[in-house]
Design a protein that fits this description.
The chain is α/β, with parallel strands linked by helices. About 30% of the residues lie in helices and about 15% in strands. The protein has helices at about 1-25, 60-70, 75-80, 230-240, 260-265, 285, 305-315, 345-355, 360-365, 365-370, 375-380, 390-400; strands spanning about 110-115, 125-130, 135-140, 150-155, 165-170, 185-190, 195, 220-225, 245-250, 290-295, 320, 335-340. It has a 7-stranded mixed β-sheet, covered by helices on one side. Helix 4 links the parallel strand 8 (about 220-225) and strand 9 (about 245-250). Pfam families: Glyco_transf_10 (PF00852).
Length: about 400
């Protein structure tokens, strides 16, 4: 009887030890090496600095990462690597620089903004444009009682233009852009339309808190916020975020306990402590605490690159992007992680984790802004809403405003 009791105890102890080892392994406490590289085969390794080593040096301070990159790579090498950037065919050519002044028929253009939803009030102004053209952009019919053009955004022009009427301008920046059928000038995000307006400007959200953190989270890598829970986008986000430590602040997949929890985590991001918080006021500041921001477009279509990507770039994070197949026509070189270039979500997650622990490889994603290598991003900003008033007034002047032929 005594012998059997000892045998049972030995077996129980052995089973308990085995069970404990299994728990430690799956909890990550025991980190056994894997046989394959954490860099996915689908990704171009030549884009990485030569000393990229998975998990080599976890970091929190962004300036420290910059210093290490400066010593190991540097702006000279980065400029050489990106000196032959192709011009983005997805952006209109005549967005800055010289203009053939002879094509202008009016010296002054007045634009009355009538049908609108989110065009910012701070666009209202009197502008001095190229070739001495002055441009009045306003929502006030008192300030411009005889406009040369009337702009409708989301609301289609009510009638076709008659002789002597101001030009009808219609703007549609949504993915399924479509002319109204009653417009003389069509504005969209696409270069093939009359006037292009990208989402990359600053005037649309210039009242926000842009205080950015130089300290990055090491335990939570990804920021995600979405409150329009589209099934396809939600499923894509879920498939990646299940593999990465993250904070989700919107209605969709929220894991922080509410939409305004960002201010609880980062009180310094409050724009005005005495007023109720509005999520977009502290958006950029909150994003800046994370190494990565997941940016997924509502629709994947050519040239439809929205604020979801540009907010992340403005915040000093690295966007993980899913959207327009020609996204590189709009962004700086080596500034984003294009999720479509990976064979699986597991490969993408492995790459993100490895990048988060390598300050030199991570700092390479910020080299464009530190070395002045903007590439196509110069035109993207030049074709934004910030410059739309002058560019539209130039288009109206070329046609002669209300004197334009039907």
């Amino acid at each position: 009887m005594q012998f059997k009791l000892k045998s049972i105890n030995s077996l129980a102890i052995t089973m308990m030890l085995l069970f404990a080892l299994i728990i430690l392994f799956f909890s990550g406490f025991l980190d056994f090496p894997v046989a394959h590289s954490s860099i996915p085969s689908a990704f171009n390794k030549s884009l990485l600095p030569p000393k990229f080593k998975s998990g080599s040096d976890p970091f929190k301070d962004l300036f420290d990462a910059y210093n290490k990159w400066d010593s190991q790579v540097g702006c000279k090498n980065f400029r050489l690597k990106n000196q032959e950037l192709k011009n983005g065919s997805s952006l209109q050519e005549d967005v800055f620089g010289e203009l053939n002044c002879g094509v202008l028929k009016l010296n002054h253009v007045g634009v009355l903004v009538k049908g609108w939803t989110w065009l910012p009030d701070n666009l209202d102004n009197l502008y001095s444009c190229r070739c001495g053209l002055s441009c009045l952009w306003t929502k006030s019919g008192v300030l411009v009682d005889k406009p040369d053009a009337v702009l409708f955004e989301t609301t289609t022009p009510p009638l076709m233009r008659k002789t002597g009427d101001p030009l009808r301008v219609y703007m549609d920046l949504e993915a399924g852009r479509k002319r109204s059928g009653a417009d003389d000038i069509f504005i969209s995000y696409h270069a093939k339309d009359d006037v292009q307006a990208t989402y990359a400007g600053g005037l649309f959200h210039n009242n926000r808190n842009y205080q950015l953190s130089s300290s990055k989270n090491n335990d939570v890598l990804v920021y995600w916020s979405s409150s329009r829970c589209l099934p396809k986008r939600n499923q894509l986000a879920k498939s990646l975020l299940r593999l990465l430590p993250h904070h989700s602040f919107g209605k969709c997949l929220n894991n922080v306990g509410g939409r305004d929890m960002a201010l609880s985590l980062y009180p310094e991001c409050a724009k005005d402590p005495n007023t109720p918080p509005i999520w977009w006021d502290h958006l950029h500041c909150a994003m800046s605490h994370y190494k990565f921001v997941l940016s997924i477009e509502n629709t994947e279509t050519e040239s439809y690159v929205t604020e979801k990507l540009f907010y992340a770039l403005d915040s000093g994070a690295v966007p993980i992007y899913f959207g327009a197949p020609n996204v590189w026509d709009f962004v700086p070189p080596h500034s984003i992680i294009d999720g479509s270039k990976f064979g699986s979500m597991e490969e993408l997650a492995s790459y993100v984790k490895a990048l988060a622990n390598d300050p030199v490889a991570y700092a390479e994603y910020h080299a464009w802004r530190r070395c002045g290598v903007l590439g196509n991003y110069q035109k993207t900003r030049a074709a934004s809403l910030d410059t739309l008033p002058c560019r539209l007034c130039e288009a109206v002047s070329k046609r002669g405003g209300s004197n334009a032929k039907l």
